[in-house]
Amino acid sequence: MIRTLLLAAAAATLAPLAGAQVTVIGGGIARDCYEAVKYNLGKPAEAEAICTRALEHEALNMSNKAATYTNRGVLRMRQGAYDGALADYALAKRLRPQTGATWLNEGAAYIFKKDYNAALVSLEKAIELDSQDLYAAYYNRAIAREQSGDVEGAYFDFVKSKELNPDYPATDRQLSRFQVTTN
């Protein structure tokens, strides 16, 4: 039984995993926005403008509109515009609250803002919704938990992230900081 978890390196860099895009079905400007996020095409500000054009000028169904708000939020987050990203995630959640990627990205934005309690709420919802990038939701929740003082919970979330995506090297780096001891 694990009774105590000690951090091996307290000064490690903890960066959330962000950028889970939401697929847009069909063509048009909204699809260009999605591809800009997914393939990291162009400068984030230029790609954000594409997403804004899609939202302002295309007749989008509710699903594609929510996806485009999430995708624009990702681009805003890449530019450090976390409040703008959070505003887009809020709009996307109003349209399609069951999209796990929106909650996942919202959690990452809150981590960047160092609002770990809000991040935990968003990431819990992403996990509950079985987000497409579930490993990223556990990874980000681990960061929020550690920063909130729940080292043991963080460790187990990093382990779960590793289990879900064994090939994600950032999880290995995070797990290498932990030393598990028993009392």
Secondary-structure map:
Layout: E1 4-7, H1 29-38, H2 44-57, H3 62-78, H4 82-95, H5 100-112, H6 116-128, H7 134-147, H8 151-164, H9 169-175, E2 178-181
Antiparallel strand pairs: 1-2
Helix pairs in contact: 1-2, 1-3, 2-3, 3-4, 3-5, 4-5, 5-6, 5-7, 6-7, 7-8, 8-9
How would you sum up this structure, described in words?
The chain has nine helices and two strands. It is elongated and about 60 Å long. The chain has 183 residues and is mainly alpha-helical.
Output the keywords.
single chain, 183 residues, mainly alpha, two-stranded antiparallel ribbon, 4% strand, elongated, disordered N terminus
Sheet with the most strands: spatial strand order: 1-2
Low-confidence spans: 1-12
The rounded distance between the terminal residues' Cα atoms is 9 Å
Strand proportion: under 5%
| Secondary-structure element order, N to C | EHHHHHHHHHE
Helix content: 55-70%
Structural shape: elongated
Structural class: mainly alpha
Query: What integer value in Å does the Rg equal?
Result: 17 Å
The number of strands is 2
Largest sheet: 2 strands, antiparallel
Average pLDDT for all residues: 89
H/I helix tally: 9
Give the structure's gist in a few sentences.
Helix content is 63%, strand content 4%. The longest helix is centred in the middle third of the chain and has 17 residues, at 62-78. The protein has helices spanning 29-38, 44-57, 62-78, 82-95, 100-112, 116-128, 134-147, 151-164, 169-175, and strands spanning 4-7, 178-181.
